[in-house]
Every structure is written in C-alpha cells, then in structure tokens.
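Limitations
The structure tokens in this dataset are predictions for the assembled complex, not deposited experimental models. Users should treat interface geometry with appropriate caution, especially where small molecules or nucleic acid strands are included. An illustrative entry is reproduced here so readers can see what is and is not provided.
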Amino acid sequence: MLAHNSVERPQQLCEASVVYFVLFNEAGHFGDPNLADEVVPVTHVQHTGVVDRFVIRQSGPLSGEVHLGGAKNSVLKLMAASLLAEGRFVLHNVPDITDVAIMSRLLEAMGVTVTRSGSRLQIDVPMLVQPEAPYELVEQMRASIVVLGPLLARFGRARVAMPGGDDFGPRPINMHLGALEQLGATFESAHGYIEARAELLHGTEILLEFPSVGATENAMMAAVLAKGQTIIENAAREPEIADLATFLNKMGAQVLGAGSSRIVIEGVEDLVAVEHEVIPDRIEAATFLAALGICGGELTLRGARPDHMHMLIQKLGDMGMRISPDADGLWAAAPRRMRSVDVSTLPYPGLATDYKPFLVALLSVADGVGIVTENIFTGRFRYIDELRRMGADIRTEGHHAVVRGHEALSGAPVKAHDIRAGAALVVAALGADGTTEVAGADHIDRGYEDLAGKLRALGADVERA
Ligand code: EPU
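Predicted assembly:
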C-alpha cells in the first residue's frame, strides 16, 4: 500500500529473545505426534555447519505434470479459525510446509492438539485454551496475528505478541486493530505484546482504508460470533477470503458476499468443528508457470483453479504463453522465449504482489523491456540485488523496476530472503548458464513442499544440498 498511517511501533523488547528451530523427522515431515519436542531452543541444536540450499543448472524445455498443494495463505487462516469452536477439525490438502508447522506449534502452545497424516491435518480444540500467542512463534511468522480475532470472539481476551517488520519493509496492523476496536475490543500494548479484551463483541459497519487480506480475515473471524450484523466495506477479495468464508459457514456462521468487496456477517451464538478441503495454492501455480516461461515446453498443473488466476493467465498470455483449463487443472505451453510486458501489482482481482518476483524473473530473460510497479509492499524489491548478481539487467526507482531481458542469466551464488523471492531465484536460475546456488532454503520451505522434487518431475535440474 503506498500511503497508510503507520501504527505506533511496539516498545522495544528488552529481554533477549530465544530463537527456535522447527525440526523435521527423517521423512522430512513435521508433526510426528511421537516427537514430543520438535521445537527446541537453538542452544539445544547441534550446529552442523551445513547451509541448506538449492543447486540449479540451466534447464529446459520442461514437460510433464505437477500436483499443486493447498494454499498456504488459506490453510493458516483456517487453522486460526478452528479456535472458534470446540471439537475435532479435519483439513485436507494441507501442504507440508514450515509455516503450517509454526501455526501448529502456535495452536499447541494454546492447548490445541494438531496431528498430521499425509496431507490431512487434524486439529482437536478443547473447551478452554490459553489465549496467548508467544513472541517466539509470532516472530517466526507474522500471519500469527490472525489468531487475535477468533480468540477475542470466543474467549473475550487475547495476548498476542506484536509482529515486527520484515523483508517487505514495515508491516503495520493498524487496520486489524481498528476493525476489532469497532467490534468492541480494547487494546493495550506492553512489553511487546497486545493485550486485547472484549466484554461483548457487537455487529458494526467497518470501512477498511485498504483491502487488507489479514485485516479482513481478523474482522470476519471476530464478527461471526458478535451480536448482530457486521458489514465489512472495501474488504479484500482474494480466493483465500472466500475459502475462509466457506469454512466459517460450514461451522454454522452466516457470512455473505466473501469474494466481493462488501461482506455481510450475521453473528451467531455458537459454531461447530468441521471438515474442509483447502483450495489449491495459486502462488505455487504461478511458480511453475514462471519456470515454464523461462525454460519453454509444456506442463499440466493438476488441481489448479484457473478461475483464481485470471489476471496472471491474461498477463502470461500477453507474454506468449498458451494456457487452457483442463478437466482437473490447467495446461500451459511456452515458446522458447517470452515477450516482455509491463506489470503492476494490485489487490485481487488485480495481479498479486506474490506473483511479482516470478514475473521479474521471467522478464529478466524475456524479449524486450518491462516496467514493474509494486503497489502493495513498497519494500518488496530486495531480491532484485540477488537477480543482478545473476546478470539480470534491472534498474529500480522507488516502487518501479525497469527490467531489460537478456537471452540468459549467469549462474551465481545468491541468497533467498523471503518465501516468494527465494522461489523466484530458483526459477530464474533455470534460465542461467552454469550452476546457481540459492542459500536460505529455509525461507522457501516456509511456503513450498518439495519445490526441487516437483521441478525435477518436470525435467528441471534442481536439487537440495
Ligand atoms: N496494511 C496496513 N495496515 C494493516 C494491514 C495491512 O497498512 O493493518 C498494509 C500493508 O502494509 C500492505 C497492504 O496493507 O501495504 C496489504 O497488506 P495485507 O494486509 O493485505 O497483507 P497480509 O494479510 O499481511 C497477505 C499474504 C501475503 C500477501 C498479501 C497481499 C498471508 C499469510 N500473507 O499478507 O503473502 O503478499 O496478503 O496479498 O496471507 C506470502 O505468501 O509469502 C505473502 C507474503
């Protein structure tokens, strides 16, 4: 968002924070219920000196099919929404990614039991939970803030660590707090925590100054148990918001209009635990489409929802990719070299900011010059320095980047700083001669289940080292 009022920064934390690692079992999966202590202080972890990274060699053309996992940005919110009712929830199509592991830890810290079997996640929510989100977990994943709405709605109080900024620059939560305040909550901030209370949440009209995904979700999850009617105007319209509404409605909520910019919610007394299948990850889909655009060839994305990706499909079509829906997903074919276009990010149904790193990678090897404008997170250009190390010809000016395409990039050691930028470096490396090593693989693991394996299945030369 280009202009917003920054929320007051949290008080500086005085105590040194403990850093945690999420450990994985032998199969690389988290959540084995037999492993009682998978999150341990870093001081208990033996340092091996091994840097987890991706090693990529120039590849192409791609061919084959890949199955998409469930949407990270949906499942995290559905897990938070489970706090709204006692009982056993079952989520299907849950990707095995670190952010789901962190959200599981967060729920478990409150007294919830989370177990995984394949892509099925079972969440057992007791009658009473400890409504607190500790700093050690919030610090690892900003999306933790979405527990605030459901905790307030069900328990009338919550203590949630203030999330800090991140690689995208400042990440204020003023709209989350403003919406919840309008519903009747009060907040105090002390020692890096938000102490929230609500005697009774009541329906109200909320006008968001920007269609924030997280603020819309927090407001929805609080309003479902508020007394009376809530209307959220200028709501975010992302498919993940509609998925959350479907989930809440299955639980017994009355949410109308999700997916449009006006959401109307009639508060109900109680909600119940349910079973639900998470929508596919449109950003993971974009990752494979960008790989295709760089390498050429054709592929099928099983489980993809083209109706969630209209603008991306249109943009890739303008660049020369052919995409058509198929019985269970979509089919796409790319020429040897794509054409450059201009790109501008906007809230859904506009072109998602999460697609941008992939489009920049694609433009780096496309034919022509493309101007990229970031309108959601102004600081989301940091990975461009890494692409430049690979020979990409990119000039940035404020929230614009001018990308001049070259036939090929040049393999180099680079570093992932966040989930999507990291995956974009892996994809860009497919079009770079020689070998590229992308360090910081843990960032990529936060949002991707076996990215290297899935790319290899399409014929790309990618491995984990
Ligand atoms: N904003 C405010 N105040 C607020 C909330 C947001 O000023 O209280 C501003 C933000 O600073 C930003 C804009 O509003 O400039 C949009 O932020 P939004 O709240 O929509 O983003 P978010 O909910 O924090 C989610 C996704 C992001 C994705 C954005 C935008 C999750 C967990 N995260 O973040 O996904 O980029 O929406 O679509 O759902 C990712 O998957 O890697 C990722 C970062």
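Some entries come with short summary sentences. For this one: Residues 52-67+281-464 form a domain with the UDP-n-acetylglucosamine1-carboxyvinyl-transferase; Chain fold (CATH 3.65.10.10).
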